[in-house]
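Quick one: structure for this chain?
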Amino acid sequence: MHALPSDHTGARMARLRRERHLTQRAVVDLTGIPYSTYTKVEQGVIAATPYVIACFARGLGLDVATVIGQPYTDDLRADQLDVLIRPLRESLDVYDLGADPDIQPRPLRDLSADAEALCVAVRAGEIKQAASNVSGLIQEATTAAHALGGKEAWLTLASCYRTAYDVAAKLGFPDLAQLSLARMDWAAQRGSDAVVGGMYQYLRALTYLREGKFEIGQRLVAKGLATLQQADASREREVVTGQVHLGGAVMAGRARHREDAMAHIAEAEQIAASTGEAATVHYLAFGPTNVAVHRVSLLAELDEYGEAIEANRQIVIPADWPKSRQSHHFAEVAQAQMWTNDIDSAFQNLLKARRAAPQQAKYHPTVRGTYAGLEAAYRRLPDSFLSFGSWLGSAS
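Got it. Here's what it folds into:
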């Protein structure tokens, strides 16, 4: 017996196709997906890769979120996370109204400390904690920034907006994530910080990565690198520059630009050799570990799954590495193992993803998509697998 309903990504693609009165052959012509791959994805025989999903969405003029079923509203409601989205939207709307006379903000040092604590919570995978607190902090920091002015006040507000982006992106609200980034850029400009401006372009590029719009994403990566060159030389600038190159590598890989992708990885590797592990610099987790992890991700994006798994064997993840990054990495390794038919190892890595950051893993499209693919591959599901599916809720 399967743990999840049949509304996996492939089934959703079939439904979206039929709603548009298209044959499978017509979809193949529109998207460029190989016919055998597409039919197997629809049937649930194989899982849809991010590349296939992006091609399908682009060919049919859809959002990627529609194809994969985000946001997972039933699960959000069950976890009482849906009620936190409306206050977040409202807090983003008051950015230009000046200081709120009904709010008496605390000292800036306290607001800055709370903003940093939210960054830490997100990296620890505590999505609900961050979502519960970020709206109120944005409103308080907005009033403080308008009342006090100055670099620190505006950058504190920018940090709050960055957490809003993290929460929205992880819970599957791309429109809210983009709005959060627009507010982050607005505050960063008032704080006159080119490093934060470069990081904004990087995060903006990631929103286009999720949407399958790789060409735009690559242009934003280039813009981010150019923006960073305007900042004074510092370790902070180097760390963000290295992270932008890592984002560029995955972007180019998903666009099937292998040479550009490897060039970005090489640049990031050279920078990481100089900066060392710098996980807490803007909480980007940059350093040699992140370069190695992105190499695995890149190889998987290029459909070089065996090479990705081999590269993963060389990685030793530090115990204090951010739990959110660990969870994301384990999910990607699980996906690569699924495609090499190492089903048991893939499931073990899904379990690792859940242990590292359960709230994040539950809403992670790669976790859900990989689980659905494994579910289709298993002839008889073990109890531990069924238990994981029950916890997950709804397959994508």
